[in-house]
Amino acid sequence: MNHIDQKLLELNEEILRKQKLRNHLKHLNDRIVKKKNEIGSLKKKLDKEHRDVLRIEKHNIYSFFAIILGTIEYQLEKEKQEYLHALMMYEGAEEALKSLNEEKSILSRSLNGLINVEKMFDKAVEEKDKLLKKFGEYPQTLLTANNRIANFNSQITELDAAIRKGNQAKKYLHKIILNLKTMEEWGFAGKNFTTRSMQRKTKATQKDIYTANNFLLNYEDQLQDLAENCSVNLDKEMQDLEAFLDRFVDSLITDWIVNNKINNSIHLVNSMSDNITKLNSSLDYHKSKVKTYLDEELDLKAELILELIPKNKS
Question: Which residues contact 185 (CB under 8 A, 6 or more apart)?
């Protein structure tokens, strides 16, 4: 068995060990939480038993009648026994919690020692992959896995690009909203229209409108590519986006400048920004699914490579 094969097998064992340690740590944390809750209940019981002892030991109406009835010693001894039992239970639970925390500390240190084992394994898989290609020993199963991996990576790249375009468009839509609200506060309906500051604001807003429109068109192109290449079903969202883009600039300019309906313009831009947020959420969800498929395919490829390693004969 060559060096890289031995390394792969050892790292695979370390990954399995890490998974077991993680499961153990999860169960241990659950036990620690339960033990802490138990200690809280035992502390309340201990405090109650302690108050009962003090109540009898102090000279009060209860102890007065207990003396008359001749039961005070019996009652005091009984309460002390109950207090002692509660104390032992409480101290025992605290010791158990201490042991659990010590065990957790040991497990955590063991896990920290394996923090990079997956990266090391992936690197070893890549090295083995290159060796197989170099020596012409590459099976069809690995070629098929590589094609699927490349496809998933391509989908993730396209999804990221679409999300980025949507966020860029939202950035300019937000600027448009802020400018329109400022104009509304200034009383845009004919008031101060000729002031230099308003003219600058108007010009900047017009520029942002056309910039946002360009980003929205790019966003639309990215979504169409996703629908064609990544089997992402965005038919309704695409129809809404196309309908909006058909009237975005004209409606915005008409309401804002011609009819002085700034509220209409603000509502229009807010609506588009909300639609992008919903669309990007859908894309993020799809991206998480693709990442899951990619991880599964990478695991499958690693298993295929491990199966190619010759087994030691006993």
Answer: none
Residues 6+ apart with CB under 8 A from 283: 159, 162, 163, 166, 226, 232
In this predicted structure, the answer to whether residue 60 has a pLDDT above a threshold of 70 is: no
CATH number at residue 291: 1.20.120
What is the torsion angle, in degrees rounded to the nearest 10, for the CA atoms of residue 83, residue 86, residue 88 and residue 94? -140
Of 73, 102, 125, which residue constitutes the final position of a domain?
125
Could you tell me where the DSSP H helices lie in 58-139? 61-69, 72-112, 117-134
**Rounded (10°) CA dihedral 278, 219, 252, 246:** -100
The number of domains in the chain is 2
**Final residue before a domain boundary, out of 96, 125, 154:** 125
Total-model pTM: 0.63
Using CA atoms, how far apart are residues 55 and 52, in angstroms rounded to an integer? 5
**What are 5-34's pLDDT values in tens digits?**
888 889 989 998 999 999 999 999 999 999
How long is the chain?
314
